[in-house]
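During the reporting period the student researcher (J.K.) took over the structure-prediction task from the postdoctoral fellow and processed the backlog of single-chain submissions. One of the processed entries is reproduced below for the supervisory committee.
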Amino acid sequence: MSKTVDEIAKLAGVSVTSVRLVINGQHKKYRISEKTRSKIQGIIDEHGYVINQTARSLKLKKTQTLGLVVPRLTNPFFSALTEELERGCRKAGYQLITACSDDDEDIETEVVQNLLMRDVDGLFVTPSTAERQQIIGNNKQKKPIVLLDRDFGTSECPVVATDNDAGGMRVGEKLAQLNTELFFLGADFSLPTAQARLQGLTRGLSQKGYTLTENEIIIQGKSERKNGYRIMKQLCERLGQIPPAIVSVSLPVLEGAMEFLHQHYGNVPADMVIGSFDDHPMLEFCQNHVVAMKQNIPALSGSALTLMQQLINGEVVNKRRYIIMPEIVVRESLSKG
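J.K. obtained the following C-alpha coordinates:
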Protein backbone atom coordinates (compact mmCIF):
# COMPACT_ATOMS: atom_id res chain seq x y z
CA MET A 1 0.00 0.00 0.00
CA SER A 2 1.32 3.44 -0.91
CA LYS A 3 2.65 5.56 1.92
CA THR A 4 2.24 9.25 2.62
CA VAL A 5 5.28 11.48 3.04
CA ASP A 6 4.73 11.46 6.81
CA GLU A 7 4.63 7.65 6.87
CA ILE A 8 7.79 7.35 4.77
CA ALA A 9 9.58 9.77 7.12
CA LYS A 10 8.63 7.65 10.17
CA LEU A 11 9.75 4.42 8.50
CA ALA A 12 13.07 5.97 7.48
CA GLY A 13 13.58 7.75 10.79
CA VAL A 14 14.13 11.09 9.05
CA SER A 15 12.32 14.41 8.76
CA VAL A 16 9.42 15.04 6.38
CA THR A 17 11.57 17.73 4.76
CA SER A 18 14.26 15.17 3.89
CA VAL A 19 11.68 12.92 2.25
CA ARG A 20 10.29 15.78 0.19
CA LEU A 21 13.79 16.79 -0.93
CA VAL A 22 14.49 13.25 -2.12
CA ILE A 23 11.13 13.01 -3.92
CA ASN A 24 11.75 16.36 -5.64
CA GLY A 25 15.33 15.41 -6.60
CA GLN A 26 16.88 18.15 -4.47
CA HIS A 27 18.83 15.91 -2.06
CA LYS A 28 22.24 16.90 -3.46
CA LYS A 29 21.48 20.61 -3.34
CA TYR A 30 20.59 20.38 0.36
CA ARG A 31 23.35 17.85 1.14
CA ILE A 32 21.21 14.87 2.04
CA SER A 33 23.67 11.97 2.46
CA GLU A 34 23.61 9.13 -0.07
CA LYS A 35 22.88 6.71 2.76
CA THR A 36 19.79 8.67 3.80
CA ARG A 37 18.67 9.15 0.21
CA SER A 38 19.07 5.44 -0.49
CA LYS A 39 17.05 4.50 2.59
CA ILE A 40 14.23 6.87 1.69
CA GLN A 41 14.24 5.80 -1.94
CA GLY A 42 14.16 2.14 -0.93
CA ILE A 43 10.97 2.67 1.06
CA ILE A 44 9.43 4.62 -1.84
CA ASP A 45 10.39 1.88 -4.30
CA GLU A 46 8.87 -0.78 -2.08
CA HIS A 47 5.64 0.96 -1.15
CA GLY A 48 5.21 3.90 -3.49
CA TYR A 49 3.96 7.20 -2.13
CA VAL A 50 0.77 9.18 -2.26
CA ILE A 51 0.23 12.86 -1.67
CA ASN A 52 -1.89 13.65 1.37
CA GLN A 53 -4.41 15.83 -0.44
CA THR A 54 -6.14 16.91 2.75
CA ALA A 55 -2.93 18.23 4.27
CA ARG A 56 -1.89 19.76 0.95
CA SER A 57 -5.25 21.48 0.58
CA LEU A 58 -5.08 22.92 4.08
CA LYS A 59 -1.60 24.25 3.45
CA LEU A 60 -2.30 25.73 0.02
CA LYS A 61 -5.94 26.63 0.79
CA LYS A 62 -6.83 24.99 -2.54
CA THR A 63 -8.30 21.59 -3.35
CA GLN A 64 -7.29 21.52 -7.04
CA THR A 65 -10.86 20.56 -7.86
CA LEU A 66 -13.42 22.42 -9.96
CA GLY A 67 -17.16 21.85 -10.22
CA LEU A 68 -19.28 21.77 -13.37
CA VAL A 69 -23.08 21.92 -13.43
CA VAL A 70 -24.81 21.31 -16.77
CA PRO A 71 -28.47 20.52 -17.55
CA ARG A 72 -27.97 16.97 -18.83
CA LEU A 73 -25.34 14.84 -20.53
CA THR A 74 -27.86 13.25 -22.90
CA ASN A 75 -27.57 16.46 -24.92
CA PRO A 76 -24.54 15.79 -27.19
CA PHE A 77 -23.42 19.41 -26.93
CA PHE A 78 -23.10 19.31 -23.14
CA SER A 79 -21.48 15.87 -23.13
CA ALA A 80 -18.88 17.02 -25.67
CA LEU A 81 -18.30 20.29 -23.77
CA THR A 82 -17.90 18.39 -20.49
CA GLU A 83 -15.36 16.00 -22.00
CA GLU A 84 -13.33 18.84 -23.51
CA LEU A 85 -13.41 20.86 -20.29
CA GLU A 86 -12.44 17.84 -18.18
CA ARG A 87 -9.46 17.24 -20.46
CA GLY A 88 -8.35 20.85 -20.14
CA CYS A 89 -8.77 20.87 -16.35
CA ARG A 90 -6.73 17.70 -16.02
CA LYS A 91 -3.87 19.19 -18.03
CA ALA A 92 -4.02 22.28 -15.80
CA GLY A 93 -3.76 20.14 -12.66
CA TYR A 94 -7.44 20.18 -11.65
CA GLN A 95 -9.96 17.40 -11.14
CA LEU A 96 -13.35 18.28 -12.61
CA ILE A 97 -16.44 17.09 -10.72
CA THR A 98 -19.56 17.10 -12.89
CA ALA A 99 -23.22 17.20 -11.84
CA CYS A 100 -26.46 17.49 -13.84
CA SER A 101 -29.33 19.80 -12.88
CA ASP A 102 -31.94 18.62 -15.43
CA ASP A 103 -32.70 22.35 -15.70
CA ASP A 104 -34.57 22.01 -12.41
CA GLU A 105 -34.05 24.84 -9.91
CA ASP A 106 -34.29 22.59 -6.86
CA ILE A 107 -31.84 20.03 -8.24
CA GLU A 108 -29.49 22.79 -9.32
CA THR A 109 -29.60 24.32 -5.84
CA GLU A 110 -28.73 20.95 -4.31
CA VAL A 111 -25.84 20.03 -6.62
CA VAL A 112 -24.28 23.51 -6.47
CA GLN A 113 -24.43 23.42 -2.67
CA ASN A 114 -22.90 19.94 -2.62
CA LEU A 115 -20.00 21.08 -4.77
CA LEU A 116 -19.42 24.16 -2.62
CA MET A 117 -19.44 21.95 0.49
CA ARG A 118 -16.66 19.92 -1.12
CA ASP A 119 -14.71 23.19 -1.18
CA VAL A 120 -14.08 23.20 -4.92
CA ASP A 121 -11.79 26.03 -6.02
CA GLY A 122 -14.37 27.29 -8.52
CA LEU A 123 -17.59 26.47 -10.36
CA PHE A 124 -18.62 26.32 -14.02
CA VAL A 125 -22.41 26.56 -14.22
CA THR A 126 -25.05 26.54 -16.94
CA PRO A 127 -27.84 28.28 -14.98
CA SER A 128 -31.41 27.03 -15.32
CA THR A 129 -33.15 30.37 -14.68
CA ALA A 130 -32.47 34.06 -14.20
CA GLU A 131 -33.13 33.68 -10.46
CA ARG A 132 -30.63 30.84 -10.17
CA GLN A 133 -27.97 32.84 -12.00
CA GLN A 134 -28.43 35.69 -9.54
CA ILE A 135 -28.20 33.37 -6.52
CA ILE A 136 -25.11 31.61 -7.88
CA GLY A 137 -23.42 34.94 -8.50
CA ASN A 138 -24.06 35.97 -4.90
CA ASN A 139 -22.65 32.78 -3.33
CA LYS A 140 -21.59 33.46 0.26
CA GLN A 141 -18.34 31.55 -0.15
CA LYS A 142 -17.32 34.02 -2.89
CA LYS A 143 -16.04 31.18 -5.02
CA PRO A 144 -14.97 32.01 -8.59
CA ILE A 145 -17.91 31.35 -10.94
CA VAL A 146 -17.83 31.10 -14.74
CA LEU A 147 -21.18 30.77 -16.52
CA LEU A 148 -21.39 28.55 -19.58
CA ASP A 149 -23.72 28.73 -22.59
CA ARG A 150 -26.39 30.95 -20.99
CA ASP A 151 -26.61 34.49 -19.69
CA PHE A 152 -29.85 35.78 -18.20
CA GLY A 153 -28.07 39.02 -17.28
CA THR A 154 -28.79 38.77 -13.56
CA SER A 155 -25.25 38.59 -12.20
CA GLU A 156 -21.81 39.98 -12.89
CA CYS A 157 -20.21 36.54 -13.26
CA PRO A 158 -18.21 36.21 -16.49
CA VAL A 159 -20.00 34.28 -19.23
CA VAL A 160 -18.65 32.16 -22.08
CA ALA A 161 -21.27 31.44 -24.72
CA THR A 162 -21.91 30.96 -28.42
CA ASP A 163 -23.23 33.81 -30.54
CA ASN A 164 -26.55 32.07 -31.16
CA ASP A 165 -28.11 35.15 -32.74
CA ALA A 166 -25.41 35.43 -35.42
CA GLY A 167 -25.43 31.67 -35.90
CA GLY A 168 -29.20 31.64 -36.26
CA MET A 169 -29.05 34.40 -38.87
CA ARG A 170 -26.56 32.47 -40.97
CA VAL A 171 -28.65 29.30 -40.73
CA GLY A 172 -31.68 31.32 -41.84
CA GLU A 173 -29.83 32.76 -44.83
CA LYS A 174 -28.81 29.28 -45.96
CA LEU A 175 -32.27 27.76 -45.51
CA ALA A 176 -34.05 30.63 -47.27
CA GLN A 177 -32.15 29.82 -50.46
CA LEU A 178 -33.87 26.43 -50.67
CA ASN A 179 -37.27 28.01 -51.36
CA THR A 180 -39.46 25.63 -49.36
CA GLU A 181 -41.91 25.93 -46.47
CA LEU A 182 -40.02 25.72 -43.18
CA PHE A 183 -41.13 24.79 -39.66
CA PHE A 184 -39.23 25.68 -36.47
CA LEU A 185 -39.32 23.00 -33.76
CA GLY A 186 -38.60 24.83 -30.52
CA ALA A 187 -38.38 24.12 -26.79
CA ASP A 188 -37.11 25.66 -23.56
CA PHE A 189 -38.11 29.09 -24.78
CA SER A 190 -37.47 30.68 -21.38
CA LEU A 191 -33.76 30.23 -22.12
CA PRO A 192 -31.77 33.02 -23.80
CA THR A 193 -30.12 30.50 -26.14
CA ALA A 194 -33.45 29.36 -27.62
CA GLN A 195 -34.70 32.93 -27.96
CA ALA A 196 -31.51 34.08 -29.69
CA ARG A 197 -31.58 31.16 -32.12
CA LEU A 198 -35.13 31.88 -33.25
CA GLN A 199 -34.47 35.61 -33.37
CA GLY A 200 -31.41 35.15 -35.56
CA LEU A 201 -33.11 32.55 -37.74
CA THR A 202 -36.09 34.82 -38.36
CA ARG A 203 -33.84 37.73 -39.28
CA GLY A 204 -31.72 35.62 -41.61
CA LEU A 205 -34.78 34.28 -43.39
CA SER A 206 -36.37 37.72 -43.75
CA GLN A 207 -33.22 39.20 -45.24
CA LYS A 208 -33.60 36.65 -48.02
CA GLY A 209 -37.29 37.39 -48.46
CA TYR A 210 -38.81 34.59 -46.35
CA THR A 211 -41.17 35.36 -43.47
CA LEU A 212 -41.53 32.72 -40.77
CA THR A 213 -45.20 32.83 -39.70
CA GLU A 214 -46.64 31.98 -36.29
CA ASN A 215 -48.09 28.76 -37.71
CA GLU A 216 -44.62 27.68 -38.73
CA ILE A 217 -43.17 28.15 -35.23
CA ILE A 218 -43.92 25.34 -32.76
CA ILE A 219 -42.58 25.84 -29.24
CA GLN A 220 -43.36 23.61 -26.28
CA GLY A 221 -41.80 21.76 -23.38
CA LYS A 222 -38.17 21.01 -22.65
CA SER A 223 -35.33 20.36 -25.03
CA GLU A 224 -35.67 16.60 -24.78
CA ARG A 225 -35.90 13.74 -27.26
CA LYS A 226 -39.40 12.77 -26.15
CA ASN A 227 -40.57 16.34 -26.67
CA GLY A 228 -39.14 16.44 -30.21
CA TYR A 229 -41.05 13.23 -30.91
CA ARG A 230 -44.27 14.81 -29.64
CA ILE A 231 -43.79 18.03 -31.62
CA MET A 232 -43.17 16.19 -34.89
CA LYS A 233 -46.18 13.93 -34.30
CA GLN A 234 -48.45 16.95 -33.78
CA LEU A 235 -47.02 18.73 -36.82
CA CYS A 236 -47.49 15.75 -39.15
CA GLU A 237 -51.04 15.26 -37.91
CA ARG A 238 -51.79 18.93 -38.49
CA LEU A 239 -50.33 18.99 -41.99
CA GLY A 240 -51.53 15.54 -42.98
CA GLN A 241 -48.03 14.87 -44.29
CA ILE A 242 -44.35 15.15 -43.45
CA PRO A 243 -43.16 18.79 -43.43
CA PRO A 244 -40.91 19.73 -46.39
CA ALA A 245 -38.31 21.39 -44.15
CA ILE A 246 -37.64 21.68 -40.41
CA VAL A 247 -35.13 23.45 -38.20
CA SER A 248 -34.73 22.20 -34.62
CA VAL A 249 -33.69 24.32 -31.66
CA SER A 250 -31.40 21.55 -30.36
CA LEU A 251 -30.10 18.07 -31.14
CA PRO A 252 -32.37 16.27 -28.62
CA VAL A 253 -35.43 17.82 -30.28
CA LEU A 254 -34.13 16.77 -33.70
CA GLU A 255 -33.44 13.23 -32.47
CA GLY A 256 -37.02 12.90 -31.24
CA ALA A 257 -38.46 14.31 -34.46
CA MET A 258 -36.48 11.86 -36.60
CA GLU A 259 -37.44 8.98 -34.29
CA PHE A 260 -41.12 9.71 -34.93
CA LEU A 261 -40.60 9.78 -38.71
CA HIS A 262 -38.73 6.47 -38.64
CA GLN A 263 -41.38 4.79 -36.49
CA HIS A 264 -44.45 6.04 -38.36
CA TYR A 265 -43.23 6.50 -41.95
CA GLY A 266 -40.39 4.01 -42.11
CA ASN A 267 -37.71 6.61 -42.82
CA VAL A 268 -36.84 10.28 -43.03
CA PRO A 269 -37.70 11.38 -46.60
CA ALA A 270 -34.58 12.27 -48.58
CA ASP A 271 -36.18 15.46 -49.89
CA MET A 272 -36.94 16.87 -46.43
CA VAL A 273 -34.53 19.69 -45.56
CA ILE A 274 -33.07 19.62 -42.05
CA GLY A 275 -31.83 22.67 -40.15
CA SER A 276 -30.17 22.05 -36.81
CA PHE A 277 -28.82 24.10 -33.95
CA ASP A 278 -25.78 22.10 -32.89
CA ASP A 279 -24.07 19.75 -35.26
CA HIS A 280 -23.38 16.04 -34.80
CA PRO A 281 -21.21 13.60 -36.80
CA MET A 282 -24.24 11.35 -37.34
CA LEU A 283 -25.80 14.03 -39.55
CA GLU A 284 -23.10 13.22 -42.09
CA PHE A 285 -24.94 9.96 -42.78
CA CYS A 286 -28.30 11.61 -43.47
CA GLN A 287 -29.32 11.58 -47.11
CA ASN A 288 -31.03 14.94 -46.57
CA HIS A 289 -29.83 18.48 -47.23
CA VAL A 290 -28.61 19.62 -43.80
CA VAL A 291 -27.74 23.10 -42.52
CA ALA A 292 -26.31 23.00 -38.99
CA MET A 293 -24.84 25.52 -36.57
CA LYS A 294 -21.71 23.93 -35.09
CA GLN A 295 -20.56 25.39 -31.78
CA ASN A 296 -16.82 25.81 -31.23
CA ILE A 297 -16.46 23.54 -28.21
CA PRO A 298 -12.63 23.80 -27.90
CA ALA A 299 -12.88 27.61 -27.87
CA LEU A 300 -15.74 27.60 -25.36
CA SER A 301 -13.90 25.21 -23.06
CA GLY A 302 -10.53 26.95 -23.40
CA SER A 303 -11.96 30.41 -22.74
CA ALA A 304 -13.90 29.19 -19.70
CA LEU A 305 -10.86 27.49 -18.17
CA THR A 306 -8.61 30.51 -18.79
CA LEU A 307 -11.18 32.75 -17.09
CA MET A 308 -11.45 30.36 -14.16
CA GLN A 309 -7.69 30.31 -13.63
CA GLN A 310 -7.58 34.12 -13.74
CA LEU A 311 -10.31 34.35 -11.11
CA ILE A 312 -8.65 31.77 -8.86
CA ASN A 313 -5.35 33.65 -9.09
CA GLY A 314 -7.05 36.94 -8.23
CA GLU A 315 -6.37 38.47 -11.63
CA VAL A 316 -8.55 41.15 -13.19
CA VAL A 317 -10.98 39.84 -15.82
CA ASN A 318 -11.13 42.36 -18.66
CA LYS A 319 -14.74 41.84 -19.71
CA ARG A 320 -17.85 39.99 -18.57
CA ARG A 321 -19.11 38.35 -21.79
CA TYR A 322 -16.91 36.17 -23.99
CA ILE A 323 -18.89 35.31 -27.11
CA ILE A 324 -17.64 32.63 -29.48
CA MET A 325 -18.68 32.56 -33.14
CA PRO A 326 -20.11 29.25 -34.40
CA GLU A 327 -19.46 27.56 -37.74
CA ILE A 328 -22.19 26.82 -40.27
CA VAL A 329 -21.99 23.32 -41.74
CA VAL A 330 -23.88 22.59 -44.98
CA ARG A 331 -24.26 19.03 -46.25
CA GLU A 332 -25.79 18.50 -49.67
CA SER A 333 -28.53 15.92 -50.11
CA LEU A 334 -27.13 12.48 -51.02
CA SER A 335 -30.21 11.95 -53.19
CA LYS A 336 -28.96 14.47 -55.76
CA GLY A 337 -27.88 12.89 -58.97
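The committee noted the following: DSSP finds twelve helices and twelve strands in the chain.
J.K. will present the remaining backlog at the next meeting.
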